[in-house]
Amino acid sequence: MKIVILDGYTENPGDLSWEDLAALGELEVYDRTPAGEIEERMSGAEAVFTNKTPISRHAIENCPSLKYIGVLATGFDVVDIRAAAEAGITVTNVPSYGTDAVAQYTIALLLELCHHVGAHSDSVKAGEWTKSADWCFWNYPLTELSGKTMGIIGFGRIGQKTARIAEALGMEIKVFDAVCRKELETEHCRYADLEELLAVSDVICLHCPLNSGTKGIINRDTIAKMKDGVLIINDSRGPLIVEKDLKEALESGKVAGAAVDVVSEEPVREDNPLMTAPNMIITPHIAWASRESRKRLMDIAVDNLKSFLQGRPQNVVSVLRQETV
């Protein structure tokens, strides 16, 4: 079978091997695929893998040989799932490869907001400590997390892992999710409705999928319901936040700081409102990208295709899953 990878570079810039996937068929790997070349490169393929290259209804309808689409990520909004289902094409994702990496990165962003480690290191290297009249200095408020409340919107694997780390730091956890699984609650981690979570949280972390119910969930109205001085972290999907509203809240001080690893359009545009917002950290969508995480992703992607070829597909996604918060 012909297997095509549309955008393999971010998954494997050269430090991993595609040999296990190549063993399953005739493999073509493209580092990146421009929009105008997607259908041409998919032509004749029975299996196509994508990370962020969109596979539209038009592309699906114009690739009659296609039987399988493997998304090299957890989020699968890059594929027109309904069109794939109508064409009888199986679509899979990789649901749990990055749990540890993304949860760890969430806490890294939070600690940077609380301690400004990078900024203070830069100040020292610029000579500020050498010239200081005192034995120490700090240019930003330093915040202790113990006893504070973290609100987590979306309580899947990553949300759960983040909660466990935050609990270890002494934080109380409030969780909002469409599905309430009481067995996941602990003494310091409880479900709440969105209104309560917004009102009581000192830190709000987004770990939910992007769909019609979550797009723009952080906006002027929801920010107004938050505590003054709240911190906001998003390493899930950029469009969960109305970026101009977040910038306004940062400028007013309503939001004390924010850190995002994702934005509404990637790569980030120069005119993105967050690029000029104060107390704002932006990183280039790397929470998932530890080598360990990428190797795990590749292994699961290979297993997904093997299972499909054996007639017992795993990690299959559907329209229903896409529309569930």
TrEMBL record:
Record-linked InterPro entries: D-iso_2-hydroxyacid_DH_PdxB (IPR050418), D-isomer_2_OHA_DH_cat_dom (IPR006139), D-isomer_DH_CS (IPR029753), D-isomer_DH_CS1 (IPR029752), D-isomer_DH_NAD-bd (IPR006140), NAD(P)-bd_dom_sf (IPR036291)
Keywords: NAD, Oxidoreductase
Domain of life: Bacteria
Signal sequence range: none
Molecular function in Gene Ontology: NAD binding; oxidoreductase activity, acting on the CH-OH group of donors, NAD or NADP as acceptor
Family, per entry: Belongs to the D-isomer specific 2-hydroxyacid dehydrogenase family.
Protein name as catalogued: Glycerate dehydrogenase
Organism: Hungatella hathewayi
